Structures are given as C-alpha cells and as structure tokens.
Amino acid sequence: MNIEEMLSITGKREPSFRIMVEFLKTIKRPIIVETGCARVDNNFEGDGMSTLIFDAFVEENGGNFYSVDISNDSVAFAESKVTSVQTQIYCEDSVGFLNKFSAILSIDLLYLDSYDLDPENPHPSSLHHIHELLAVSKCLKKGTMIVVDDNLNDEIGKGKYIAEYFSKIGVPMIYSGYQQIWKL
Fold this sequence. Notes:
Elements (H helix, E strand, L loop, with lengths): L2 H5 L6 H12 L5 E5 L14 H12 L2 E6 L2 H10 L5 E5 L2 H8 L5 E6 L10 H14 L3 E9 L11 H10 L3 E4 L3 E4 L1
Parallel strand pairs: 1-2, 1-4, 2-3, 4-5
Antiparallel strand pairs: 5-7, 6-7
Helix pairs in contact: 5-6
C-alpha cells in the first residue's frame, strides 16, 4: 500500500497526516521521530498506523525514521511491518530514549503518541507527553513540526499540557483536530 492509499483510510487523522506528509516533502532527507509504534494490523482508522506511513515516506522520499515503544510486542509487530532500511525501531521508555537521542540529531517531525489516553483519567498520558517534549527539546529547531495524537477536546487529550506550554511561550498551533500540530 502506498502513502496515498494509507492516508485515505486514516479517518479522523487524515487531514493532519496530509499536513505532515506535505511538510515532509519540503525537506531533503527529513528526520522523523515517533513515540509509540504500530501494534495492530490494518488499524488505520483506530490507531492511525503512523509507523507504516512514516516508513513508507522515507522509503519513497529518503530521510530517516526512528520509532520507540516500551512494549516488546508492539516493537516486534512494527518491525515485522516496516520495509525501509531507513527505519529503526527501539524498545525502551520513550522519555529516556528521547533524552539520549537529542544529543545525536536535529528532528524535522516529532510525532508523540506513546502513552495510551484514558479519557476518564487523562492526566498520566498528558503528563507523559510533556515529559517527552522536554526530554527531546535540545534537538528541536526552528521549523520542527510537533504532532500529538488523541486530542478529544481542549481539556482531554495527550497534548493538553504541551498545548498549554506552547501557548505560554508563543508557539502557534497550526492545526487542531484529533491530532494537534505546532511548528516551532
């Protein structure tokens, strides 16, 4: 399945995935970093399958894609589905990984989707995602696109604390739907 076919079946994430892909096309050899990888076969509408979309992008357009997940099962599944030699998937805690990673490369697209959101108790997931952002902040640059998945509304979503932080420091949100997007 090519990128266009994948995008067309991502449901509520389609508009934001299209923004990401168009952005990535403007960068020669982009560096893409994702937290939380694909874990269920053909779950484009449910989970989004960003791992497969980013893998297909670097396969077709060049660049490098790094994904991290704490679950051995999710990592094994994702590794069985990716095809690009430019894709690397790691099994470890995302905050520690991002802190180590930030000394290595400058990121063009940061996609945060690791800690599952519980709508009845969104705080742990929201807190985890701001920790991820802070851990990797050393390798974010002007022009980096940051995307957080699973935004239910202004009060419930993985990106709630990131949205508050970016608002306080003047980083504009460029898209708000099921996913939120900012550009530094």
